[in-house]
């Protein structure tokens, strides 16, 4: 399913690129220029969908006893690139402000490396013990307030910001096993804030919006290991908080 979605996203990006090249001169021509979708932004409600590439990472605050040795950080986070998709619902507030709700799914894969055995000798760590692949599927529901300026020919820049609720469907928060059995646990329900900027392009039949978004969690996502588990994993960290950067393509 993941490979199929990546192929679909790649084809969509190619189609968008070629379509943009074919129509870009029409978008910004002065002579005999026609404004596309002139009444589109006068609608009180509108909808669309989006595709995105994402890069998720953890901001980690280490425990000074178990996560740091000789001023060296013993836990490292490695982000990877993945993808997401969702729907767009927009309500026009006035000439310059819109309210947007953009529920979607974000598929995330991260890797944590624990070189923490130097602080304890309770267990000999194997290479498998040192690596935790943290896979997450977030149901992301951002509510954003968008501010845009007047259209310039067939384009319009904007900025947006707001709050997110994100449910992690692969959090393992209720699992009885922990890192000693290879299970890294995080919280299911999370909250954060997002900021976004981009440019809206008006074509003859639709509006295309490429944009960049950053999302940052408020809460600590770490679930402690069970009592009796050696302090190599969760105990080596005080807090972990997701931070994400996305390139988004919106179609309305």
TrEMBL record:
Residues 1-22 form the signal peptide. It comes from the Bacteria. The keyword Phosphoprotein does not apply. Keywords: Signal. The keyword NADP does not apply. Gene3D superfamilies: 2.40.160.20. Residues 44-221 form the Outer membrane protein beta-barrel domain. InterPro entries: Beta-barrel_OMP_2, OMP/PagP_B-barrel. Pfam families: OMP_b-brl_2. This is Outer membrane protein beta-barrel domain-containing protein. It comes from Cloacibacterium rupense.
């Amino acid at each position: 399913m993941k490979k199929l979605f990546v192929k679909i996203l790649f084809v969509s990006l190619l189609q968008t690129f070629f379509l943009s090249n074919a129509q870009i001169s029409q978008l910004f021509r002065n002579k005999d220029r026609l404004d596309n979708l002139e009444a589109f932004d006068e609608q009180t409600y509108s909808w669309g969908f989006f595709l995105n590439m994402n890069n998720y990472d953890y901001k980690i605050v280490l425990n000074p006893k178990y996560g740091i040795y000789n001023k060296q950080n013993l836990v490292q986070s490695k982000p990877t690139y993945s993808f997401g998709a969702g729907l767009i619902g927009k309500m026009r507030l006035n000439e310059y402000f819109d309210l947007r709700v953009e529920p979607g799914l974000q598929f995330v894969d991260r890797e944590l490396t624990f070189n923490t055995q130097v602080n304890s000798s309770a267990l000999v760590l194997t290479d498998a013990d040192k690596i935790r692949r943290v896979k997450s599927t977030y149901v992301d529901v951002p509510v954003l307030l968008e501010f845009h300026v007047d259209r310039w020919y067939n384009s319009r820049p904007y900025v947006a910001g707001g709050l997110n609720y994100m449910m992690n469907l692969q959090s393992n928060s209720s699992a009885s096993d922990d890192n000693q059995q290879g299970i890294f646990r995080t919280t299911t329900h999370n909250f954060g804030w997002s900021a976004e900027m981009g440019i809206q392009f008006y074509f003859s039949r639709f509006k295309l919006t490429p944009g960049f978004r950053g999302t940052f969690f408020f809460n600590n996502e770490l679930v402690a290991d069970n009592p009796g588990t050696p302090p190599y994993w969760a105990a080596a960290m005080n807090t972990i908080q997701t931070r994400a950067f996305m390139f988004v393509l919106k179609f309305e």
